[in-house]
Amino acid sequence: MANVATQKLLLFVIYVVANGIMIITVHAATGKTDAPIFIFGDSTADVGTNNFLKTCTAKADHLYNGIDFPFSKSTGRFSNGKNAADLVARLLGDYKVSPPPFLSLVAHKRTFKRNLLRGANFASGGSGIFSATGQLTFVRILRSY
Question: Is the separation of the CB atoms in 74 and 125 below 8 Å?
Answer without folding.
Answer: no
